[in-house]
Amino acid sequence: MKRLIIFDLEGPLSPMDHASSSMGLIEGGEKIFAVISRYDDLLTLEGKEGYEPGDTLSLIIPFLLSYGITEEDLREVSHQAPMVQGAKELVTILRQDGWQVYIASTSYEQHALNIGREVGVSEENIFCTPLKLSQFHELGNEEDFSFIRTRGQYILENLYSHNLNKGVKDKLIRPYLDRFFWHDLPQTALGQVLKQIRVMGGRRKVRAVEAVLRKNDAYLNEVVVVGDSITDFQMLRAVEAAGGLAIVFNGNQYALPHGTVGLATSNIKDLLFILKEWLDGGREKIRLALDRMLEPQSDRGPFYHWLAGKRSDELDNILNIHKKMRTLVRGEAAAMLG
């Protein structure tokens, strides 16, 4: 059995949503980010041509530029990021046991490379969103920046709600941001940003997995992937469909239906149990082990669930457990993002 594992970063390795926290450098910025993140969910669920889940990270760049946010600011925010309990120890153990450990993350390179160093994943094993923010600062002028700041204020005052994930503002968000991002913004110099940034999400994560497989002379049914959100569902789905091991860690409603196994816990070292069973006997060994497992005594887990082939009502019960753990580990604001 090949020892190949690819982690999403935000959620499994670090609880911080770096893009949201970077927008937090702007007054009201995290709320603006939440609205744009909801818009990202809507476009993804619709299947907008050419759009990938996680492209939020390209959509917010005009706002970062308009408020003078720099690459150094992005790095500083990243240096404040905590690690998920057990993340460093897990990566250390895996590498000592001969695993090739990779990261595939929507995060900007300023965050992904920093967290990679923290947990011990080499830079050449990290797939993320390249961003040279300094190159884009020269594109805009004060008129463009003022225009974007005005739109940001409108988003904050009219489109934000604490319950965005329940769809309470969808009918307002969709037409306003459709016009802003695909009609108004392209008429400014900063409109070029959307064309030049390629966020590492959705199908691009699948391509990252394929690159790892080529490098290691392996197949989809030999790889383990770990994800938690809408940017991971295509990666999870591809690996699960091929007979590999797709692990959903403290997942949301977008990720959970596409996994092989679910793990809800406050300590990602609990992943080692699943990986041991995988090496010993593949998917069937894991399924049999989970069938025999008793519920944990602690409300912090670990909760293990076999996901493949589950009915929607069965997944609903599992999702409730994952939601609680997701909020515990990531905090309410990050947990609510797609």
Explain this structure to me?
- It is built from 16 helices and 7 strands.
- By secondary structure, the protein is of the alpha/beta class.
- It has a 7-stranded mixed sheet with strand order 3-2-1-4-5-6-7, with helices on both faces.
- The mean pLDDT is 95.
Share of helix, binned:
40-55%
Strand order of the largest sheet: 3-2-1-4-5-6-7
- Reading the helices and strands in chain order gives EHHHHHHEHEHHHHHEHEEHEHH
β-strand number: 7
Provide the domain count: 2
Top CATH class of the largest domain = Alpha Beta
Which shape, going by the Cα principal axes? globular
The count of helical stretches stands at 16
**Radius of gyration from the alpha-carbon trace, in angstroms:** 20 Å
Classify the fold: give the CATH topology of the largest domain: Rossmann fold
Q: Which parts are unreliable, with pLDDT below 50 for 5 consecutive residues or more? A: none
What labels describe this entry?
338 residues, alpha/beta, AF1437-like domain fold, 7 strands, 51% helix
Secondary-structure blueprint:
Elements: E1 4-7, H1 18-23, H2 29-46, H3 56-59, H4 61-66, H5 71-79, H6 87-96, E2 100-108, H7 109-119, E3 126-129, H8 133-137, H9 142-159, H10 170-184, H11 192-196, H12 203-215, E4 223-227, H13 233-241, E5 245-249, E6 261-264, H14 271-291, E7 303-306, H15 312-330, H16 332-336
Parallel strand pairs: 1-2, 1-4, 2-3, 4-5, 5-6
Antiparallel strand pairs: 6-7
